[in-house]
Amino acid sequence: MTTRALFREDAYLTHCDAAITAIDEQGIHLDQTVFYPLGGGQAGDAGTLTLADGTHIAIADTRKAKFEGATPDDAVHVPAADQDELLARLSVGDRVTATLDWARRYRHMRLHTASHLMCAVLPYPVDGCSITIDYARLDFATVEPIERELVEARLAELVGGAHSVATEWITDEEMQQRPELVRTMSVKPPMGLGRVRLLRIEGIDLQPCGGTHVRNTQEIGALRVAKLEKKSARTRRLVLEFA
Ligand SMILES: [Zn+2]
């Protein structure tokens, strides 16, 4: 049931053809997909699967598939509620076109890339991260005061700097030898595939990440710090929203 994760090579793919490899209580498994499964703090994708006869199945979410021997790339497409009649028509081997809710995903990509920039704005370990369609929430392990205006100004500078964003790959062994690359305490690098994907924002940030990102920081657009609070004695929570 291995899924080829096309979004890891090109996050801008909005649709792909695929074959159904399994249908179970988790949802619909495909041989390849453009849908990103919830992980690394980033929400799962939504969209539609279109059958050869034109029938649309609404997909509400995408999760990592759970089965013996599953890899981090194995995804399962979770159908929206009340589609039992449509789902009953599906068979293993059927060809479908998987189409993303691109507007939603592109917001994830912009906010996710912004969360990488935040690691450069605030040089503290990240102790939690959540990227949704409306906001990016980051918890920084620090007792230092954080100035909202300074954060917004520095972030705007990095966004406006039009820095290129690209992925690189290193082996699991190389990753183990470079623990300093890991910035997020709560998210382990996606290991187990023999290689680890690094996200490089030219001149700003380099860290392991399996998520989806924009190609240039300028695409992020204007953001504001919507919330800044003390989450615990040693953690500061920051929420970014589109301005
Ligand atoms: Zn990332």
Automatic annotation (TrEMBL):
The keyword Nucleus does not apply. PROSITE patterns: AA_TRNA_LIGASE_II_ALA. It comes from Paraburkholderia megapolitana. This is Alanine--tRNA ligase. The lineage of its organism: Bacteria, Pseudomonadati, Pseudomonadota, Betaproteobacteria, Burkholderiales. Its cofactor is Zn(2+). GO terms for molecular function: alanine-tRNA ligase activity; aminoacyl-tRNA deacylase activity; ATP binding; metal ion binding; nucleic acid binding. SUPFAM superfamilies: ThrRS/AlaRS common domain (SSF55186), Translation proteins (SSF50447). PANTHER family: ALANYL-TRNA EDITING PROTEIN, ALANYL-TRNA EDITING PROTEIN AARSD1. It is found in: Cytoplasm. Its main location: cytoplasm. GO terms for biological process: alanyl-tRNA aminoacylation. Keywords: Hydrolase, Metal-binding, Zinc. GO terms for cellular component: cytoplasm. Residues 1-243 form the Alanyl-transfer RNA synthetases family profile domain. Pfam families: tRNA-synt_2c, tRNA_SAD.
